[in-house]
Every structure is written in C-alpha cells, then in structure tokens.
Amino acid sequence: MSWVRRYRALIRNAWLVDLQYRASIVLWLLWGVTEPAIALGIWWAIAGSGTVSGYARADFARYFFAVMLVNQLTIAWDSWYLDRWIREGDLNFRLARPLHPVHEAVADNVAYKARTASVILVVWLVAAALWPAVRLQATPGRLALTMIAVLLAAAMRFFISFTTGLLAFWTTRATAIMELHAGLSLFLAGRIAPLALLPPAVASVAGVLWFRSMLAFPVDLLTGTVHGADAVLRGFASQIVWLGVWIVACRVAWTRGIRKYGAVGG
Amino acid sequence: MSAFRILSAFWRLNVAEELQYRANFVASVLGTVFYMATALLTLSLFFRHTSQLGGWDYWEIVVLLGVFNTLTGVIEAVLRPGIGSLVGDVRSGELDLVLVKPVDAQGFVSFRRLDVWRFSDIVLGLGLAGYALVRLHRVPTISQLAAFALTLAAAAVVVYAIWVLLMCLAFWFVSVENIAVLFDSVFEGARYPVSAYPGALRLLFVYLIPIAWTTTVPASALTGRLRPALALVAALVAALVFAFARFAWRVALRRYAGASG
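Above: the input entities. Below: the structure tokens describing the complete assembly.
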C-alpha cells in the first residue's frame, strides 16, 4: 500500500516539474516525430504506386505512425540524467533518501510518457479522421497484446538506459555509448525501416539480440504484421528473456558502481 | 576591424584551452565517422529498394551528405557553442555583460566561442563529397566550383540566420533551454534532396523553413545539376534571411530587461 502512495507522490512531482517546462517537452516531442516523418517521406517516394517487399504507401504510413507512438511510449532518457547525477554529484542527495533512486526515474518516465504519448495519440486520431491510410484495423485482443508488448519494451529500454547511464561510474563517455546504441537501433530496432526491408542477415541479428523487442515487435503487433500464435509467443519470449538480462545487468552495475563511487565534494 | 581583433583574441584563448583536451579530438572524429557511417548505411538501405531517390542516384546523394556534414561542422564548431548558448545567457542575465561591451552584440554573441575539434567535420564532409564525385567520374568545372563555393557560403548564412531566429525566441519564452532541438530535428530533413519528398514537405523546405537551400543547392552545384542563375538566387535568399534575422534580433533585444535590473 505504501508503495502506491510513494509512487503517487513521485509521479505527481514529476508531472508538476514537467508542467513547468511545457515548451521543452513539445520540443522533445517534435524531435521524436520528425525522424519517422522523414523516413516515411522517403519510403513514400520509393514505394510510388507499387510495393516495397510487400509494403505499399499506406502500410508505410501505418508503420511509421505506430513507430512514433510506440517509440514515444518506450523511449528512456535516463542514461543522460544518470550520467549527470554521477558526474556532478546530484546522486548524493538521492542516495540519502530512504528510497532507491530507480523509483524516481521510473516515476519520471511514467509522467513524461503519459504526457507526450497522449499528444501523439491525439495527433494520430486527427490524422486518421482525415487520412484513411493511417487507420488501424485492430481487434481488442490485439490491442491488449500490444499494450503488454509496449510495457515490456518500455521496461527493457528503461533498464538499458539506466544501466548505460551507470557506466558513468567508470567512464566519462557513458552518453557516447548510449548514442552508439541509438545508432544501431536506428536499423536494428526498426526506426528507419520495417525489419522486413533489411538484409535478412541483419534482420536476424536484430531478432536474436534485444533490438527487435525494443520497438519493432510491439509496432508490428499493433499494425498486424505479426501473424500466428507461434510468432507472437516467440516475440514475447524474447522480450521477457532480454528484459531479465538487462535487469540483472542493471543490478550488477549498480552494486559494483556504488561501491566505487566517491561522491563529488564528499 | 577592432571587432575582429577582439574575436581573434577570444579564439586564440579558446584553442589554447581546447588543446589541453586532445583526447576530445579523437572522440569527436570517431563520433563523426560513426554518424557518417549510419547515414551511408541508411542510404544504402533505401537504395536496396530503389535505384533513384527524387531523381538523384546513390553517389549524388553521397555528395549531398558530404555537404550536410560540412554544414554540421559549421553548426557544431561555431553556432552551437556561440549563439546556441544565448538562451542560457538570457535566462541567467549574463547577456548584460555582453551588452555593455562596446562591440556589436549579435556578432559577439555569435562568434565568441568555438568548438575547434568539430572543424574536423568540415574536412570530413568535404572529403566525403570529393570521394563521391570521384565515384561519379565527375570533375567539376571552375564555374561549378565557384557556384559551389557561393551556394555553400549562402547555406552557412541561411543556417546561421535560422539559429539566430530560433535563439531570439528565448527573449519571449525563458524555459526553452533545448530550443536547438527544434533545429536539429528539422535539419535532419536536409539529409536528402528536396525532390525526394512529397509535395507538401517540399514546399515547406523550400519556402517556409528554407533548409532546401542548405544542402540540395550546393550539392546540385557540385554535380552540375544547378542552373548558374540559381546560385545567384541562393545568395539572394541568404541575404534576405540574414536581414530578417538581424531585424528579429533588434526587436528581441528591445524586450530584454536584464537580470539584476
């Protein structure tokens, strides 16, 4: 029960802090929207009146609208925050609290995503009203599965980001590592194109590693390109396994790092 | 003249300071190479499924990517550390210290700080464009090179003016520390020729947010697509946008009340 209260307080706090910086949030939102919009523009031109590996213009439109939404729901900026907390010593007062800093980070994510994703959802609904191509034909069951997949992906990307941020205990280039990961995920997570359009070898690497689970799998679930119970189950299994791996990695990095941490201005 | 003397003193200090952190040079070059590699891979991915993009073939767009990277160098080396820090200065009131100096405030704010390592981006970008020209078996004529130099300079001016306009928003909205993100996200669109975009986006990029003039036009000059007259139009566009930015700066400054004041 007390956890519910703690989280309500943390989320409320994060929400109010965000509220002060409404303009900034709109800017970050725009950053998240332009990348898929540009990719859509290019694929739109390439597809013309035909199809590219089975994707026609309307399919690309649906895919990238789903990418906008799912990416916004799963993206985590925590490595940047942690890097700053550790380098500048902002971690100190957080350690002194009777609450693990990870909870504050989770609450921040919930508040941020609730705000930005609802904006995207509204934009999508307006677009769908005017533009039949981006309308979804999803059954309630599929929507429910998508929600679970998005939750798992969000949790995993949170732990990836948090763990990478923790590398700041050892190196000053933790955010550069995160940028590297972002560069890889451009292709492997399906941000620039549906995985079906990648060279098969690359696409299978994306499936074996955690990248597909981060974004492409929930997106494909939403747009209905994952067919059959078997494929759905395998997608979820991969998500759960990799989520577990990243949770373990995060715990290891945290316990080792905190032992090494000599606070700034100590 | 004296403004230039002051600035060059600042730059010397700047370079001396940066030379202490030489490892940053390696990190910066590696970062740029990685960024260029992802851009080229993205392009290869598109060209797996098409042979032309907006009428341009692969190596022509690589020329454009080289131009894009050159401009990124200008942005990262000069604009972001200089005019990019205006928002923070307005909020903290540090701009007071600039305004009392007997120099042109806009010029001073814009060019006081450099990120010298990022000048390597300009070299790498021009190198990439040159390599792509070799792959195209195309040797630009003198007049094409002149048109390229003119349009590239015009592009730098357009980019600068857009930054000034964005940063001026800081005088109205104080909490826009990350307003540069707005530029970054839209400028991503300049990685491809404008002709590759659907009609509405194209109009937007040519007229409303004139980033078409920043990469498509100089790259066209190098590959010989550009009608010479258009180089002059580019210069005109740059002059217009610059004048507008100058005007916006004046208006914005009138709103500035100082911090302690």
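Note for the figure: Residues 228-260 of chain A form the longest helix (33 residues).
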